[in-house]
Design brief:
Blueprint (H helix, E strand, L loop, with lengths): L2 E2 L4 H13 L10 H17 L9 H14 L4 E4 L9 E7 L14 E7 L2 H17 L16 E2 L10 H11 L12 E6 L5 E5 H4 L18 E4 L2 H22 L6 E2 L2 H6 L2 H8 L6 E6 L8 E7 L7 E6 L3 H29 L6 H12 L24 H10 L5 E4 L8 E6 L14
Antiparallel strand pairs: 1-2, 2-3, 3-4, 5-6, 6-7, 6-13, 8-14, 9-10, 10-11, 11-12, 13-14
């Protein structure tokens, strides 16, 4: 069922979790107003698995406090059922960058969403996306901090900058001419993930400049941005997204032939049974494609369509943990199905004039993308074997190094948010998602 949280409820949850984490007792009868507010807050926190807080280590508690506190600053927060995945959870919200002292030319509100096998996973996915989206805006003080080093500054003569093919890629990503001088662009401090050495990347590649600041023809997107409980965790998630987007581009452009995923692998990983329970009763059929490319980091597409093959949508996942990558693709697929249904519902209830560009893309995909409209939607090669791998930052970087790719990281952590946030940049990889239209 649809549940919208009342204004102030999640802020009350944050205060309740803070009190419990500090070891303060529950409100007494003498403070009935506080007690009445804490009861539903405690129930929600228990549904997240956040209480009892005294059984939680300090780092986890700190991260959870930051997540709930950030959710408490949402303008709207809600849960939605997923008709085609009743066994999964969805959490959504809206927030205003202005509420964090940020100016944005992309609209007054940010819409964020998360999904998962549990309410905790969906909630953390949604709030993590909010931290990610806020962090890659330019913040007050990025250029002139009250203390410490500026995050954004003009290059100095001794700064290490990208050059050669890496610089060519960066300029293309920003839509700038190939003969542009990188020393004329504001820079942002980064490190090489190979050797830890500092360098300066173009700021406009990594974040959205404040209104009135110099921009570029192709502003920074969110690919390669991630938030997490630590810089290392956020970096791994960011790199996996970069790998995923590159594989998706290679698949869509025909450079990576889609392979079947062996039913035995899905069974071994428990994903056939899990998908059946998640999607119990859905009329849509789903299937997986293996789109692992030259990076040799497993990447997958999960697709679904109605029995007659219409209204194809997809989700993507990548990473050295096969089960996690496949499950990530499946859960993203479930969220995509919901997004398409919401766009169709909006058109039915409010008419064409109420639709935005994103709604129209979902509806176009619903009307035009069929299982036989693209050869990419069906396997063109047999399954391939994947060596069992452990998900780690070091192992992922090793794969990139063997493929001849260098990775860089910008720390975009914003202290007021309480969560780590980064942007990972891997020159030479594709960063965009394909536009799904019928040929």
């Amino acid at each position: 069922m649809f549940v919208e949280f009342e204004p102030g409820f999640l802020a009350a949850c944050a205060e309740t979790l803070r009190r419990r984490g500090a070891g303060e007792p529950a409100a007494s009868r003498e403070t009935e107003t506080i007690a009445s507010a804490e009861q539903p807050a405690e129930a929600f926190l228990r549904s997240l698995g956040y209480l009892p807080a005294d059984a939680t280590d300090a780092d986890t508690l700190r991260s959870r406090l930051a997540l709930v506190a950030l959710a408490g600053r949402f303008d709207r927060a809600f849960r939605l059922p997923m008709r085609h995945a009743p066994g999964a959870f969805f959490f959504g919200g809206q927030l205003s960058p202005a509420g964090f002292g940020l100016s944005s030319e992309r609209g007054r509100h940010l819409g964020v969403a998360g999904r998962g096998l549990t309410l905790q996973q969906a909630f953390e996915s949604c709030v993590g996306e909010a931290a990610e989206r806020l962090s890659f805006h330019e913040w007050p003080g990025d250029r002139t901090p009250p203390e410490g080093r500026p995050l954004i500054r003009a290059p100095r003569h001794d700064d290490r900058l990208l050059a050669g093919a890496e610089l060519d890629w960066v300029l293309r990503e920003m839509g700038l001419p190939g003969d542009s001088d990188p020393r004329m662009l504001d820079g942002i401090e980064a490190i090489s993930l190979a050797d830890g050495e500092p360098l300066l990347l173009p700021a406009a590649l990594c974040l959205l400049p404040a209104p009135g600041r110099p921009g570029v023809p192709q502003p920074a997107g969110s690919t390669g941005c991630a938030a997490g409980p630590s810089v290392a965790a956020a970096t791994l998630s960011a790199l996996e997204e970069v790998v995923e987007r590159d594989a998706v581009a290679g698949w869509w452009q025909g450079a990576i032939p889609p392979r079947a995923v062996a039913p035995s692998l899905l069974q071994e990983l428990g994903l056939d049974a899990l998908a059946g329970s998640l999607r119990d009763g859905s009329p849509r059929r789903h299937w997986f494609l293996d789109i692992t490319g030259p990076l040799k980091i497993p990447a997958f597409v999960a697709l679904s369509a109605y029995p007659e093959g219409r209204a194809v949508v997809a989700g993507y996942g990548a990473g050295l943990d096969l089960r996690r990558a496949l499950l990530g693709a499946l859960l993203e697929l479930c969220q995509a199905e919901l997004a398409q249904e919401l766009a169709l519902l909006k058109r039915r209830q409010r008419g064409e004039e109420a639709l935005n560009a994103v709604d129209r893309r979902w509806i176009e995909q619903y009307e035009q993308a069929t299982a036989d409209s693209h050869p990419r939607f069906t396997p063109g090669a047999p399954p391939q074997d994947h060596a069992a791998g452990s998900r780690s930052l070091a192992a992922t970087l090793s794969c990139l190094t063997r493929a001849g790719r260098k990775a860089y990281r910008v720390d975009l952590s914003r202290p007021p948010l309480g969560l780590a946030a980064v942007r990972a940049v891997v020159p030479g990889l594709h960063t965009g998602l394909p536009a799904w239209t019928a040929p």
